[in-house]
């Protein structure tokens, strides 16, 4: 029995390392999850098709309102202005791009590796009449020419698909693409540092059945890649992870309330059980504070344009 378990464990580990996120393999990994069906994702996501942690003001708030608050928070932290050119790495179904442009009028480029997401986002941009401001590309972050410079870079829950081995490459690319006085805003799901080494070297339910090639970074892995591969420094850090529990519960409730619609798309009962477990499994991780979700603002040393901007202490009483 132990031998059988060991063989099974080795099989999953070998499968996991075979999914290492090279340029070619990353596209396959992303496609296995995000190209399932746009209709499928629309069943459990909010109308904006935002697939990341929301920010709730009160517990019974609607998912749509909470997602809009998260988007507004990212826009505020990025300090986007009309004359800026923004790059979004992992642009999803385009909701963040359209909201940033509607609020600021900036120029925006979003990249994704999902053909289904690309088609949907381009359709929504055309419907909104924003084709002159927003461009979406099917492109790996490593394939963006270094001559391109962006005033702001935003990446919301994409870095989990980069992989441990390519984390330095990711930050090196951001360093080369960011304008001298630019800001980089990163949102990501994190795993505790004490578990990171064992976790990254093994497979688990999420890596096997939901996100092939995925690897949640620890906060320390993010900062080590930042310091090794770039001149970036941290301006602000916030952990919004406790908001992911209600986000996942909303997704799970929407999902389970529409099982018939999911079956009608061609998925089977096993698929439904796997995805329900995915939602609950992840929700438990955030409920127990085992998992976190960080928003980090990066800049470079000497960026004096940030001096006293949005001083959070301005309204506090004196000691």
From TrEMBL:
InterPro entries with a match to the protein in the record: Arsenite_MeTrfase-like, CMAS, SAM-dependent_MTases_sf
Name of the protein in its database record: Cyclopropane-fatty-acyl-phospholipid synthase
Listed SUPFAM superfamilies: S-adenosyl-L-methionine-dependent methyltransferases (SSF53335)
TM segment ranges: none
Natural source organism: Aegilops tauschii subsp. strangulata
GO biological process: one example: lipid biosynthetic process
GO MF entry, a single one: methyltransferase activity
């Amino acid at each position: 029995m132990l031998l059988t378990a060991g063989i099974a464990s080795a099989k999953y580990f070998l499968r996991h390392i075979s999914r290492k996120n090279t340029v070619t393999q990353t596209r396959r990994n992303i496609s296995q999850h995000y190209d399932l069906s746009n209709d499928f994702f629309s069943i459990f996501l909010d109308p904006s098709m935002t697939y990341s942690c929301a920010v709730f003001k009160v517990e019974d708030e609607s998912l749509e309102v909470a997602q809009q608050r998260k988007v507004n928070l990212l826009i505020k932290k990025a300090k986007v202005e009309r004359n800026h050119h923004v790059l979004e790495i992992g642009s999803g179904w385009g909701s963040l791009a359209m909201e940033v442009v509607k609020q600021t009028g900036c120029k925006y480029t979003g990249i994704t590796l999902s053909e289904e997401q690309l088609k949907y986002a381009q359709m929504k941009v055309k419907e909104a009449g924003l084709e002159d401001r927003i461009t979406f590309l099917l492109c790996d972050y490593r394939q963006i020419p270094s001559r391109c410079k962006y005033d702001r870079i935003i990446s919301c829950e994409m870095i989990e698909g980069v992989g441990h081995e390519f984390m330095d490459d990711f930050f090196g690319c951001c360093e080369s693409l960011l304008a001298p006085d630019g800001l980089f805003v990163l949102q990501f799901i994190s795993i505790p540092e004490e578990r990171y080494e064992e976790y990254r070297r093994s497979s688990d339910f999420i890596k096997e059945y939901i996100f092939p090639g995925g690897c949640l970074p620890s906060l320390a892995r993010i900062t080590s890649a930042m310091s090794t591969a770039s001149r970036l420094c941290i301006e602000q850090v916030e952990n919004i992870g406790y908001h992911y529990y209600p986000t996942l519960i909303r997704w799970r409730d929407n999902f389970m309330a529409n099982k018939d619609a999911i079956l009608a798309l061609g998925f089977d009962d096993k698929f439904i059980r796997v995805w329900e477990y995915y939602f609950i499994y992840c929700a438990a991780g955030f409920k127990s504070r085992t998992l976190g979700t960080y928003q980090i603002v990066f800049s470079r040393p000497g960026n004096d344009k940030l001096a006293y901007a949005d001083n959070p202490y301005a309204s506090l009483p004196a000691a």
